[in-house]
Structures are given as C-alpha cells and as structure tokens.
From TrEMBL:
One of its GO terms (molecular function) is metalloexopeptidase activity. This is Peptidase M28. InterPro entries: M28_fam, Peptidase_M28. It comes from Colwellia psychrerythraea (Vibrio psychroerythus). GO terms for biological process: proteolysis. Residues 106-316 form the Peptidase M28 domain.
Length: 334
C-alpha cells in the first residue's frame, strides 16, 4: 500500500539530481512514486470502470455514448480545477464523407509551467472506442479508458505540482477513425506547434489479466535531450524493466492485431503519437501492444491487469518528470 504523504519534495526539487544520486548509490525509486497515493489509485480505477461501463455504449465517434463521455471528462476536469485550453474544454472538428458529416470533439485542459510557460509537453490519450457491433458493446477498458483515466489523474497531480514546462492534456476523439482527433489538434494549433517540445501518448496501458509488460517507443528525443540525458533516461527505463511490475520494455511485437484487420507492424503510426511525429514533434508512446481482448467485446474493466496498470501510471509519470527536468536543463542557456 502506498502511504499518503503531505509533502513530497523530491520531484519538486529536481529529479535530475536525484537520479544521479540513485545511479551511483543503487537505491530504488520507490520513494519517488509516493506522490501517487492509495486514494489516487482508487480514483483512477474508478475512472476506468466508469468510462468502460455499458452506459457509454463503447464511446464511438459522434454517438450519444461518446457525447456522454465528453461530459464526464469535462466534469472531472472542472472538479479538479484544471484550466481549459484557450478558455474552452471542447474543441470540435468535422469528419466528412460523401454521404454524411460527423462531429468529433477533443477535450483539452492546460496547466501552466513554472519556468517555460510558453513551451509545452502534450499528453495524449484517446477516449473514443468502437461502440456497439452486432448488439455487443465494445467497452474498451484497456483501449483506451486506461490511458484516459491516467490523464485525468496526471491532471490532478500536475495542478497541485506543476512541471517546469506547461502541459496540455489532450483527450482525443476519433483515434479509432484514422487518428482524426490528433490530426484536428495539429491542424487547429499550427501557431503553437513550434513551441510543442514533446508528445507523450498513452494508449492501452492496462492490458489483459495475462499481460506482463508495459512497452514503449520513442522517436526524435535527441532533439530535446543531450546524449548524457538520453543515457540517464535509458538507465532509468532499464531500472524499471527489472524493478517494477511493469517490466518496462522497449519496442512492440510485430504481429497482426487480434480482433482487427489493422496490421500494427508500423507502431510508429499506430496511435496519436504518429500524427505528432509527422509534424516533427518528438514523442514517447506507452502501451502494452495487442492482446486477446483487443478490439473485442471482452475488453471490460474486470479483465484488465489492475496491478500492472497502477504500476504503469507511476512509471510513466516518473519518466515525464525526468524528461521535463532534463529539457529544462538543456534550455537554461536560452
């Protein structure tokens, strides 16, 4: 059980210095994860359970269940006093075809950084899923209520303890339909893109009960981190591979997706991070890869790996904080 502590000064005073001390002493990172309390763990699991319930009917783009899930996200952000991005939470876009047009809606919050207020880290997680198919609800607990709930928790943590860079919390719609929400954000925020330093994308971070590994993929990090910092990040990730329930592992297996006609061999474009990458923005993508419940009616709350999920949330958050501090160190001369 993680103990609730009133003050967690470690990450606020700089993870870079801590990591140097850790790497030389061999001490663990357990204390660092204490910012996430047992109450937070229960809250994030409740978010997953709610968003993947039958009430939202699989959250398909432009469906009533999708609209209701938008309301849930906005209500949750307001409850934690998370500022809206550009003074509004809902940012709509249109999917047009020969026969009809459908409206999608990204939900976006923004937390101002302490040092680089005009430089941004964009955290993404898509909240849409497949809806109801042949009278079976595809609830998408792992895909991607898991990532969506994690972003809601991170919003709460960062509101109380902001990073050095500003953080945009982007809950995308239409990811299951050609990454539409991420594409809409890039199109609508062209003036902002030069100031977006990094995208961290969470898509399926809970897996099934048999899932043992959290995987990650990154590209273009040398644009924002020095060679020494990249080496430190690699060491941190290697530590998590051996000393965390996530067994954090680089890369994804190249297999054809279960329950889908989509070939996920091109993991660089498998989710919203691919859109940011095409815009020249470095990314880190976290997910478990495909599993037996992927894109099926079996992807329900009671079938996710809750222990892996809670460990993944902590491991991802610690890497976020490290990269934020490391980018700040690189940017100091500017």
């Amino acid at each position: 059980m993680i103990k609730v502590r009133k003050i967690i000064p470690l990450w606020l005073t700089g993870l870079v210095n801590f990591f140097v001390a850790w790497s030389s002493s061999g001490a663990g990172l357990d204390r660092f994860s204490d910012i996430i309390t047992e109450k937070d763990n229960l809250s994030v699991l409740e978010h997953v359970k709610t968003l993947s319930s039958d009430y939202y009917s699989g959250r398909k783009l432009a469906s009533q269940g999708n609209i209701d899930s938008q309301d849930y996200l906005v209500t949750s952000l307001k409850a934690d006093s998370i500022p809206a991005f550009n003074n509004q939470y809902r940012h709509s876009f249109t999917k047009s075809s020969f026969f009809q047009s459908k409206q999608g809606t990204n939900i976006i919050g923004c937390i101002q950084g302490t040092h680089h207020k005009d430089k941004y880290i964009v955290l993404t997680a898509h909240y849409d899923h497949l809806g109801t198919i042949r009278n079976k609800i595809y609830n998408g607990a792992d895909d991607n209520a898991s990532g969506t709930a994690a972003l809601l928790l991170y919003a709460k943590l960062l509101k109380d303890n902001p990073l050095k860079h500003s953080v945009i919390l982007l809950f995308t719609d239409g990811e299951e339909v050609d990454l539409l929400g991420a594409k809409a954000f890039i199109s609508q925020q062209k003036k902002l893109l030069n100031n977006v330093k990094l995208n961290i994308n969470l898509d399926m971070i809970a897996g099934s009960k048999n899932t043992k590994k959290l995987r990650f993929l990154s590209k273009d990090l040398p644009k924002i981190l020095s060679s020494q910092q990249l080496d430190e990040l690699n060491q941190l990730q290697a530590y998590f591979k051996k000393n965390s329930l996530t067994q954090l592992t680089a890369g994804f297996r190249r297999i054809k997706s279960v329950g889908s006609n989509v070939n996920r061999a091109n993991w660089l474009m498998a989710s919203d991070h691919g859109v940011f990458s095409k815009a020249g923005i470095p990314f880190v993508y976290f997910g478990v890869g495909t599993h037996k419940n992927y894109h099926s009616e079996l992807d329900d709350y009671d079938k996710i790996n809750k222990n892996l999920y809670l460990a993944a949330i902590s491991v991802i958050f610690q890497q976020l904080v490290y990269i934020d501090n490391a980018m700040y160190e690189v940017a100091i001369p500017d």
